[in-house]
TrEMBL record:
Keywords: Heme biosynthesis, Membrane, Transferase, Transmembrane, Transmembrane helix
Main localization category: membrane
Annotated localization: Membrane
One Pfam family, short name: UbiA
Gene Ontology cellular component list: membrane; mitochondrion
Protein topology in the membrane: Multi-pass membrane protein
GO molecular function: protoheme IX farnesyltransferase activity
Transmembrane stretches, start-end: 35-55, 62-81, 101-125
InterPro entries: Protohaem_IX_farnesylTrfase, UbiA_prenyltransferase, UbiA_sf
GO biological process, one term: heme A biosynthetic process
Organism of origin: Pyrus ussuriensis x Pyrus communis
Protein name, entry field: Heme O synthase
Length: 162
């Protein structure tokens, strides 16, 4: 939970200006001015380090590595990609599919084929789900400066894929 909080907080630090332009996100703590960037960075760093350390000490290094990797993938790959290229949807789906795999790794200390079933289902479910969501919120996402798959595809294509 702490690693996920760190990833989410880092995302909001990087997207403060974009969030301020979107109706859906303009009232978040950073764009609304309720929290400063230094406070958010301090929180994100502390939560990420503490969460990773807890996973390493109370679960195992595999879980800690998966948690830290997911934080990095979300905050430092997916977040910037949202403004550059629609491939971010596939990267974001990896991030969203990781929690059950991380839980399996924490409980068993390994990753097996069985451990990949739920993450695979989540991954493939997220693509059409997000494309529909992006289409419905297309004006807000466009105002925020995002390059999302659902924004670049027609309504017909989204309905066919979904």
């Amino acid at each position: 939970m702490m690693v996920a909080a760190s990833a989410n907080s880092s995302n909001q630090v990087f997207e403060k200006q974009n969030d301020a332009k979107m109706n859906r996100t303009k009232n978040r703590p950073l764009p609304s001015g309720r929290i400063t960037i230094p406070h958010a960075v301090t929180w994100a760093s502390a939560a990420g380090l503490a969460g990773t350390a807890l996973l390493a000490s109370k679960a195992n290094m595999l879980a800690a590595g998966l948690g830290a990797s997911n934080l990095i993938l979300y905050a430092f790959v997916y977040t910037p990609l949202k403004q550059i290229h629609p491939v971010n949807t596939w990267v974001g789906a990896v991030v969203g599919a990781m929690p059950p795999l991380l839980g399996w790794a924490a409980a068993s200390g390994q990753v097996s084929l069985n451990a990949m079933l739920l993450p695979a289902a989540l991954y493939f479910w997220q693509i059409p789900h997000f494309m529909g969501l992006a289409y419905l919120c297309r004006n807000d996402y466009a105002a925020g400066g995002y390059e999302l798959l659902g924004l670049s595809w027609s309504y017909f294509n989204i309905n066919v894929i979904s």
